[in-house]
Amino acid sequence: MFKDSTYRNVTLYALLVIGLTFILFLSGIPFLKMLGQLTPFLVLIPFLLFSKRPHRFRELGLSRVGHYRWYLVSLIIIGLLIISFLLAWVTGFIQLPPASQFPNGMADHSGRFILLLKTFFHPAFFLTPILFSLFEEMGWRGYVQARLQPKLGLNGTVLYTALIWTLFHLPFIFMGGYYTSGHFILNTALFTIAVFILSIFMGYMRAYSQSLWPVIFLHAGINHIRSFLDILFYNKQSSWTYVTGESGLYTLLLWSGLILLIWLKQNNRQQLC
What we know:
The protein is mostly helical. Helix content is 72%, strand content 1%. It contains nine helices and two strands, in the order H-H-H-H-E-H-H-H-H-E-H. The chain has helices at residues 5-26, 30-36, 39-49, 68-90, 109-120, 123-174, 184-209, 213-232, 249-272, and strands at 94-95, 235-236. The protein has a two-stranded antiparallel sheet with strand order 1-2. Helix 1 (5-26) packs antiparallel against helix 2. The longest helix is centred in the middle third of the chain and has 52 residues, at 123-174. The relative contact order is 0.16. The mean pLDDT is 91.
């Protein structure tokens, strides 16, 4: 297996990214931890520059926008995340903060909501999650998936990429302070399941759309909306991470249901063909 240059290069790439990410997060230095989120792109640069494959840049999937329906699917997935937060609000796991906690000069929830909207959806503010998602996805769904798919087939490649992407995120849990409440082991288990499931879906999205941009849009949208809702519903129970956020049970159930429907529809379409 490792006599094949594709397997060697992809394995070396994954080991370098995951190893460097762990090292940068272990430093505890905020700037280096920020760089730890960019390792898929930083490691990718020499792999692209020193490769002799003629279509290495086109394989990344950035030259095509992709069909609009995949952006609609992304919006639905992001919408389900919003519904998950609303369910957690209704069931009492999260709450809007009382007016006594508002900044000076702010009297009601509508003013606070508008301020958060203007802040989070200012073009300059929204550019950050897009760039981080772009740099990350160029490595995983752009480079790794494109290189492996001719060798492992679509299903094998999607599963392999999901496993590697899950391992890449472990430093965010162990050393990144990603969760500030809830039980560490339970949070880690739920997050691992969520990342794996989401990665499988994003892998198929990348393949069927023949573009990396819908995946980038979905990745950035989930991260950004999650941060927005986290601030909006500022008061939370310690167990809130078990039910909402990108790895809560409400979210996992909603996403799994949608992904199952899409898979069944896609499978039926292939059988008809």
